[in-house]
Amino acid sequence: MTDTEPHSEPQSEPHPGIPPQAPISGTTRLYAVLGDPVAQVQSPGLLNPLFAEQGVDAVLVPVEVRPDDLERVVRGLQQIGNLDGIFVTVPHKADAARLADRRSRTVEIAGTANVLRREADGGWLAENFDGSGFVAGLARAGHEIRGRRVALAGAGGAGSAIAAALLTAGADRLALTDPDRPKRDALVDRLAVYWPGQVHAAAEPPLYDSDLVVNATPLGLRPGDPLPFAPGALAPGAVVADIIMKPRETPLLRQAAALGHHVHHGIHMLTGQVESYCAFFGLRAPTTG
């Protein structure tokens, strides 16, 4: 359809309570969220309404990028004059940290990044708010971390940051599992420098001996995925958390809830990061109702 052709479909009314998105123009600042796939990403639905609410002339768009193309895309986006930042999702978080020109302490510990900000000199500064967002989400839901025994499945992009954040928040013990043993062991070694004696690798999550069990793997993202672990072995009263945001009710969480366990949904990790993103990019913190 060209600009001169009439629109045959009626325009939908904005959803009540959500500010209308400002029109994109020649002054609009750009942000991209890179992933493979990107159909599941939730950040545009949170941040674009925030831009509208604050009168910020900006837009966040999803960009599907294959792993082999990531470096070319990141370097290419670095040359776009009105692009201020990149959000990063599965499976690119470790490579995004590697491609950054500078890294925060969190990124150095975790080895992964979930956001890049272009600095005044044109370089990328890498940060990772997955872990702090996950911990903030748990706290808001009333789940205590200090002194708890944690089993974490997944040593990848989000899992590495979550592991560091849980230990920072006072977890007593962290058992880490991942089928990629070299990646798992490398993360355990990095964490052990800061938390000696509190983190160890495990072949299987010690479900019977854990207060909090976290799925930080992609299992559950696609229909037919196997469970990351069988919740039937959990101790009574355990909290089961999943970082997958879409679908909201993953098979793991459904089974855990049916067994009477407390469940914690993936969207809480993202909503827990919004204030950090705002500070990182110089936006006002969102207002609360």
What does this protein structure show overall?
By secondary structure, the chain is of the alpha/beta class. The chain has two domains: 29-129 and 273-281, 3-Layer(aba) Sandwich (Rossmann fold); 131-270, NAD(P)-binding Rossmann-like Domain (Rossmann fold). 31% of the residues lie in helices and 19% in strands. The protein has ten helices and twelve strands. The strands form two sheets. Strands 2-1-3-5-6-4 form a six-stranded mixed β-sheet. Strands 9-8-7-10-11-12 form a six-stranded parallel β-sheet, sandwiched between helices. It starts with 28 loop residues before the first strand and ends in an 8-residue tail after the last helix.
Which properties best describe this structure?
10 helices, six-stranded mixed β-sheet, Rossmann fold, 289 residues
Biggest sheet: strand arrangement: 2-1-3-5-6-4
Strand count: 12
Using the 3D structure, state the CATH architecture of the largest domain.
3-Layer(aba) Sandwich
**Into which percent range does the helicity of residues fall?**
25-40%
Cα separation of the termini: 41 Å
What would you say about this model in short?
The chain has 289 residues and is of the alpha/beta class.
Describe the secondary-structure layout.
Blueprint: E1 29-35, H1 43-54, E2 58-64, H2 70-77, E3 83-88, H3 93-99, E4 102-103, H4 105-110, E5 115-118, E6 124-127, H5 130-140, E7 149-153, H6 157-168, E8 173-177, H7 181-194, E9 199-201, E10 212-215, E11 239-242, H8 251-258, E12 262-264, H9 267-271, H10 274-281
Parallel strand pairs: 1-2, 1-3, 4-6, 7-8, 7-10, 8-9, 10-11, 11-12
Antiparallel strand pairs: 3-5, 5-6
Helix pairs in contact: 5-6
